[in-house]
Amino acid sequence: MYLTWLDSNSWLIEIGNQRILLDPWLVGSLIFGNVDWFFKGSRPQERPIPENIDLILLSQGLEDHAHPPTLKQLDRNIKVVASPNAAKVVQGLGYTSVTSLAHGESFTLNNQVEIKAFPGSQIGPTLVENGYLFKELETDLTLYYEPHGYHSPQLKQFAPVDVIITPIMDMGLPLLGPILKGTNSALEVAKWLQPQVMLSTAAAGDVIFEGFLTKFLKTAGSFEEFRSLLEKNNLATKVIEPNPGDRFELRLEKRAVAI
C-alpha cells in the first residue's frame, strides 16, 4: 500500500493495484461560496494532476472535498464514488460514471478493492456525510478515512483496521464548536480499531489560509501529545507525519479482519 498526501484532505491511495484520488484539491484556490474575503486557501504552486487514476472518491460535497476547479481539470470519464451530496456536484460537472454511496453501502473497484460508506461528518443540523473503509481483497488489508473526526460506533464490528487517516489535532470556532475533532476522537477510534498506523489529515501542509474566518480559528494538540496518549493507553499504533507530495509505502503486518 502506497500513500501520497496532497495537502489538506487530499490523498492518492494506491491499494490493490488501484490508484484512488481522494477528496482532491490540486489546482486553484479553496473558496467557499465564492466569498474569498471570508476564507481562502492557496498554495505556492499547484499540485500536478496524478496520472492513471482508477477512481475519484469524495467524502463530502463541500469545496474542500469536492473542489470544483480540480474536478473540472480531471477526466470526466474517470469513475467517481461519492457521498450523495458530493455526487450531485460531479454529476453537475458532467462526469459520466458516478456512484452515490449511502451509509452502509459498498462499492467494489475492479474486483480489487471494496469501499464501504459509514456515517461521517455532520454538516449542519441534518446532513451527515461519509467516512470510508477500504479493503484490499487479495490481502484483507484495511484502511479507514474520515476527514473531520466523526467516527461511527458501527466501525467497531470491523476491527481491527490496519490504517486510519483522520485528524489528530483539534480545530474549532468559539461558540460554534469543533470543525475538526482531533485528539480525543482519534484516540477513541484507535481504541476501537487497534490500527497498526495512523496518519493525520486536514492539516495545512504547504497551504496558506487567509480571510476573516482565520482570525477566530483555534487549534490544539500535537503529534507528540497524541503519541503519548497512545502509549498511556497501551496502543502500539505508529503515528506517521507525512510530507506533502511525498509518496511512501506502508509496510503492514497481515492480520485477521472481520470484514
From TrEMBL:
InterPro entries tied to this protein: RibonucZ/Hydroxyglut_hydro (IPR036866)
TM annotation in the entry: none
Name by which UniProt lists this protein: MBL fold metallo-hydrolase
UniProt cross-references to PANTHER family, sorted A to Z: METALLO-HYDROLASE/OXIDOREDUCTASE SUPERFAMILY PROTEIN, METALLO-HYDROLASE_OXIDOREDUCTASE SUPERFAMILY PROTEIN
Pfam assignment, any one: Lactamase_B_3
